[in-house]
Each structure stands twice: as structure tokens, then as C-alpha cells.
DNA sequence: TAGATTGTTAATCGATTAACAATC
DNA sequence: TAGATTGTTAATCGATTAACAATC
């Protein structure tokens, strides 16, 4: 029963964190929790917890609190984690294999169905449970399969070309590990960027300005 | 000539992005730029550019703009990118090797001087230009070398133990790829977290709520 | 019913944008 | 000098926190 309209990005980016904490509480067989208690654990304010949750509906019960299990399920639905979106990984290098091997995509709303690389030496090798295909097969593959998103694990210099091909084939959702500004080029795309070097520079700043 | 006092995190997290764009402009031999032009390129407002930069000093010249080279250098200093902070990588798995092989630490303010793993099969192998040491050698190594930061590329379950050891040995700065809440346990640490799964869930939300 | 805790409105705080005087 | 563009103050906007009436 979403109230939505338009939820602010600040709220949205906190949802995965709520989900993590609720999953943990659920695993510990905690079955109810108040906004005050949850706020304490997460190190935020109770007001924020209630405001955030109420963007999507009244999941609590006055005088009682929230059902952990129910709230976890609600957020799971809000995030859309059971969509099983079909994704492909572009680039079977270190980052490609890092995410393929360590992330539990199923639980994050995705299923990775293929991986592509242009390096002949990588083609045919195994990336987690899937086999690396030659990048030249991209068009054939995407014509035959409905793919929802692409995870770009290639350097900025390689993005331009491959992005053009992916976009032409209808891919509009990207998880981007490069510094290429996808959204500037293609306005109707949804892009989440992972800027590791920006993150590391921020650490450097904070160390430098302790 | 820092004005500082206390710069907000919003501003700080934008600095690496300014630095990237300025480096690029500099590489293209652009030697002056106005806040309006820079804002255009970066897709933000000119007001924000001027406000942000003026947190640290008056780097521009009225009627002219900013010297690209000078501004890039200023931000480099603000970020502290020439500190050459000594860091160690904990975990020689996919993420450890991904960052070791793909990030140019020197240009990001760091130098990775060692890598540790508890897996006997990984010990002795090469990670980029450094050799993987056994985690049991941690204490000996850290007693002999002044290390400024640790990059944790291990799963949450392994963090507790190793973090206790690192903290005891005086390491207070962390780049953290796990979901372990370092700062909750050790208040006087500086921590930058990389929560890839949170990021991916956000992509899922945005696809689900297009 | 009394106690607890939500949902929601109002107050505060901080961040972004606009405006313009200072000045190169 | 006239034109351009900064540095900075003021206005606006949005996000967070506080307060409390509704209600389980």
C-alpha cells in the first residue's frame, strides 16, 4: 500500500540498510521492535525511522511497535528484491569476478545470466557458475534473451563502444564501476555508480584532516 | 589557505569529483575555466561550485575564472593525495586483487606495502606487485612498519577477529568492503565503507519504481 | 483503563540556489 | 573604463528532529 508520490533519494538509499538490520533481527528470532529500539541499533533517530517507513505505509501498530518479519518483507517488496531481474556482466576481469563470486545476486533482486569479455584468453573460462562469452556475441545473445540490466566492470576507455551497443539493444539500467558518465549521454537510463577511487580519496581527506 | 572550521560531508564527498574533472580538463590543456562552465560540464550549479571551493579558499580571480592547473593542485592538497599513506590489504580474494590490480593507489594518496590472507593456498602468491603474507605474520609486520590504514577485503564474519588485532596494533583508518560496523565498535576510527550490495539494491528499487 | 508507541504535523537545522556588490 | 566573473550574503528549499494527538 505505497503512499509514494516521490520518495527522496536520501530515504531510498537508507532502505537497504533497514533491510539488512531487519534481516539480522529476523535471523535472531526477534519478532517485534519499536522505532526507538531499531534506531538505537542502527545509530539513527527514532523520528527518522518512523518518517522513513511512513513514506511507504503504516507498517507499525500503535502501542506495540513493528513486526520484524512483516517489516522485512515489506521492504523486500518496496525494493523489489524478488523481481529476479536478468542481468549480464560486461568484463570478466578482477571486478567482474569479484562481484560474480561474492555477491548473492538472487537475494539482491538479480540473476546474472551471462558474462562477456573481449579478451580471447578470458572467453570460455568460468566466472562463478557462468561461462564467459566473446563480446562479439553480444548482439546475438541480447536478441534472443530479455535482459534488464548490465553490470559494467570495464575501464572507462572501453565503455563508450560497448555502451552504445547495449543501449541500442534496449538496455537502460546499469550498474557502473567506471567513471564514464552514462546518464549524461543517455538521459533515459537508470544508473548506479560505484566510484571506488572517489571513496578512497574521501578516506584520504579524512585522514589528512583528522 | 584553508578557511575550514568544519566542512560538511556533502562538500567533502564532492571533492574527488571536482578533482577528476579538473584533471581531465588539465589533460586537455584547458588552462582557465569559469564556475559557470565547470558547473555545466559537471551538471551542477555554478553557485555550488563557488560555494564548495570557497570553503577552502578564494582560488579564483574575479572577471577571469579559475586556473585549471592551480585549482587541480589545490584540491590535490586539500584531499592530501601526496601523503603517500602506507596501507595494507587484508584478504587476497577477488576484491583484494581487484583493487590491487585496478586502482592506482599512488594517485589516490596511498601506497600498499603488504597484503595478508589466512588461506595457505593464497600465501606466497602475487597480488599486483606485492606478495601475499600469512595473516599470522600481521603482528610482526606491523611492529616493524608504520602503517596508516587497512583495506578490509574479507567477509563480515572474518572481520571481528582481525579488526581487534589491527586496532590493538594502532590502525585507526579503514577502507571497509564488509558490512561490519567498525565505527560502532571503535569510536575513534575513520572508516569509509563500500556497500556494494546496498548499491545494487538501490538499482533494483529504481528499476522496480521507474 | 493505563501505558506504550505509532503516524503525522510543526519546528529546526542544514544544504542548495539566487542575487549582487566587490574587483580583476 | 566596461565586461566578466568571483566571493559572499540572503532566500529558498529539503531533510532531519521534536512534539504530541491518535490509537492499539
Task: Pick out its properties.
210 residues, two-stranded antiparallel ribbon, 9 strands, Arc Repressor Mutant, subunit A, DNA-binding, 9 helices, 2 domains, 7-stranded mixed beta sheet, homodimer
Spans of at least 5 consecutive residues with low confidence of chain A: none
Number of helices of chain A: 9
Largest sheet of chain A: 7 strands, mixed
How many beta strands in the DSSP annotation of chain A? 9
Looking at the chains present, what oligomeric state does this protein adopt?
homodimer
Global structural class of chain A: alpha/beta
Our count of domains of chain A comes out at 2
| Helical residue percent band of chain A | 40-55%
Shape of chain A: globular
Main CATH class of the largest domain in chain A: Alpha Beta
Q: Largest contact between protein chains?
A: A-B, 56 and 56 residues
CATH overall fold name of the largest domain in chain A? Rossmann fold
**What is the H/E string of chain A?**
HEHHEHEHEEEHEHEHEH
Q: Give the CATH H-level superfamily of the largest domain in chain A.
A: NAD(P)-binding Rossmann-like Domain
Order of strands, main sheet of chain A, comes to 5-6-4-3-7-8-9
What average pLDDT do the residues of chain A reach?
A: 96
Distance from N terminus to C terminus of chain A (CA atoms, Å) equals 46 Å
Q: What is the rounded Rg of chain A?
A: 20 Å
CATH architecture of the largest domain in chain A: 3-Layer(aba) Sandwich
Strand content of chain A: 15-25%
Amino acid at each position: 500500500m505505497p503512499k509514494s508520490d516521490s520518495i527522496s533519494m536520501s530515504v531510498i538509499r537508507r532502505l537497504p540498510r533497514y533491510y539488512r538490520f531487519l534481516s539480522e533481527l529476523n535471523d535472531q528470532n526477534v519478532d517485534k521492535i519499536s522505532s526507538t529500539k531499531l534506531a538505537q541499533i542502527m545509530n539513527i533517530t527514532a523520528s527518522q525511522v518512523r518518517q522513513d517507513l511512513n513514506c511507504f505505509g503504516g507498517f507499525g501498530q500503535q502501542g506495540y511497535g513493528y513486526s520484524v518479519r512483516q517489516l522485512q518483507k515489506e521492504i523486500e517488496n518496496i525494493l523489489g528484491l524478488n523481481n529476479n531481474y536478468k542481468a549480464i556482466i560486461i568484463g570478466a576481469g578482477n571486478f567482474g569476478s569479484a562481484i560474480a563470486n561474492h555477491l548473492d545476486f538472487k537475494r539482491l533482486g538479480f540473476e546474472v545470466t551471462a558474462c562477456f569479455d573481449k579478451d580471447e584468453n578470458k572467453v570460455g573460462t568460468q566466472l562463478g557458475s557462468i561461462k564467459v562469452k566473446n563480446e562479439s556475441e553480444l548482439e546475438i545473445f541480447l536478441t534472443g534473451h530479455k535482459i534488464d540490466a548490465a553490470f559494467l566492470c570495464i575501464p572507462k576507455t572501453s565503455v563508450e563502444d560497448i555502451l552504445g551497443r547495449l543501449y541500442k539493444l534496449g538496455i537502460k539500467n546499469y550498474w557502473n564501476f567506471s567513471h564514464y558518465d552514462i546518464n549524461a549521454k543517455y538521459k533515459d537510463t537508470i544508473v548506479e555508480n560505484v566510484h571506488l577511487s572517489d571513496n578512497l580519496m574521501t578516506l584520504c581527506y579524512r585522514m589528512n584532516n583528522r
